[in-house]
UniProtKB/TrEMBL annotation, chains A, B:
Belongs to the metallo-dependent hydrolases superfamily. This is Uracil-5-carboxylate decarboxylase. GO terms for biological process: secondary metabolic process. It comes from Massarina eburnea CBS 473.64. It holds the Pfam family Amidohydro_2. GO terms for cellular component: cytosol. GO terms for molecular function: carboxy-lyase activity; hydrolase activity. Residues 4-361 form the Amidohydrolase-related domain.
Amino acid sequence: MPIVDIHTHIYPPTYMDLLRSRTTVPYVRTFPDAPDSSRLIILPGEDDPSAPSTSRGRPIGPEYFDIKQKIAFMDQHKIDKSVISLANPWLDFLPEDEAGEAARKINDDVNALCAEYPGRLYAFGTLPLSANTETIVKEVERLKGLKYMRGVIMGTSGLGKGLDDANLDPMYAALEKHSQIIFLHPHYGLPAEVYGPRGSEYGHVLPLALGFPLETTIAVCRMLLSGVWDRFKGLNVLLAHSGGTLPFLAGRLESCVKHDGHLKKAGKTENRRDVWDILKTNIYLDAVIYSEVGLGAAVQASGADRLLFGTDHPFFPPLEEDAKEWHSVNANYSAISKAFEGNNGAAKDVLGNNAVRILRLEE
Amino acid sequence: MPIVDIHTHIYPPTYMDLLRSRTTVPYVRTFPDAPDSSRLIILPGEDDPSAPSTSRGRPIGPEYFDIKQKIAFMDQHKIDKSVISLANPWLDFLPEDEAGEAARKINDDVNALCAEYPGRLYAFGTLPLSANTETIVKEVERLKGLKYMRGVIMGTSGLGKGLDDANLDPMYAALEKHSQIIFLHPHYGLPAEVYGPRGSEYGHVLPLALGFPLETTIAVCRMLLSGVWDRFKGLNVLLAHSGGTLPFLAGRLESCVKHDGHLKKAGKTENRRDVWDILKTNIYLDAVIYSEVGLGAAVQASGADRLLFGTDHPFFPPLEEDAKEWHSVNANYSAISKAFEGNNGAAKDVLGNNAVRILRLEE
């Protein structure tokens, strides 16, 4: 039985060069007070020039960009195959005229990394979302010809107005036509004010633990409410972090839709594909949720045949500096083993068989 | 076996008078273009003077303030006892010098409503949070002497800076000392911008289905991270809507705490009460989640002995105007029956026994 990690990030050389060439968020920089270490700053909130460099962004080492470290991590945790993806913020920040070329270079770069380890590495590509629609669609078509590409990773901003933007329809049509799955991943979180005046005392906990999953949930609900899946019935989306909070809130979402006076008046409460239908037809969930409690809801919402193991590597690194084992990875392994106690077949599906089947990893 | 509804709101006469006397949010008003119906406007976003009155706030009828309708609803749905509570936004909006008296009047008013139906009605009181600490603490103590009061309902704003505000400690101490549970309920949701430019097309769905539960989750996580339960180990909180999203995200929350560099440096990642401990010791969850999927996670997180049936009446009214049965209530009944298939004892606990025990409803 193969173990497949479908949530594992890489900043390939071309992307690192891009980040190192920049001086505004997102960027990678070495600060004078710590000249032997680089830091990755990806959010405006992490870029306080008055703060010591050690609290700006996060240290970035070779585990972020050296493919050998990815393979070593896979070996350490008995992962047979990984579907690597560019980490946030992808290319969201690029000017329109640079995005197309950057996407091509980075996708070629990532595809070449996969080619170094045939059978072990596959990838989700990146789309130049700040470019014009034609360029975006062309890249979807081009990705189809790259041997190791199995879909695209994407944030929640779309062309700048979210994933319920009708201008995204040509992209959705192309992805549907070419059977490319979207790996939907958060980046922007929620406005800092929602965490209150003491928010920064809690480090990155609230934005990461709550903001990220909520961003994903809002994005997928906006897709749903705007009828993306009524127009593109074959469009598949893999949701990061077991769907954000969608499995838990799906019942409430359905109830709120059914009871909404505005939607009722617009004739949009009946004769629609409901969230449960879409969860079991168009949505896949990763199993990056660190507990059998949430995982159980994810299984019930989408089915054990639509759940896929992941690690979020290189984030959530070992808790002790000299530890080899990643606590976060073992938490996700343990959640699967507990959630499927007595059902070894389903556990194996989640750990690898589903990914092989859904992402065609034997081709 | 008694069936007990612990999530059911009332706008008692005193509070209705207050809302009718106001002209800014929150208020109740009859508009010239619909003189035979009143509307309740409780959020700034619902108060667009350029919109037709029928899209401002929501219609408010006697089901909001007539206790006879509450009893009829209970009879219709075989509910033996209800623990009624003032609906949002409670007294959050009152000036400092008015809040204390308003709270006393409204709490007396609600207690008197309960006295009309002895054995059937109990209540959560309301605190004058915009008053000074002394006034707040006095009202906690006074509530203890009102026969039908069993705790307090509260929003997430505290004294204006959230529930992780150290200035709330005297209130938490008083609530702990007098064994008064907090029923934590959302009102403010999330900033409208997070729903994107098309948010209003989806009616109230996104703020209600996602904003509300997230507001609750953020509030309880802020309490947790600020150490409220380290200082007040006996403080009990009942979370609306099955904890917002806490049961689903608890694993991620724990992982984010453990991996946070800032908290680690501050020595706050070890030797602390973790979220699972607090979920099973200090937190109770209502069962207002409309699906066995979310309910299952709630049960796993806090235990079937800490989950309490609720309806959210008079919100989520029947889908058809002439329907007697409330779809929302039946959805919650059905979720309990599915989640506890084959375990009738646990279902009965959730439907009523837990509430009787935890809230001392036989006294």
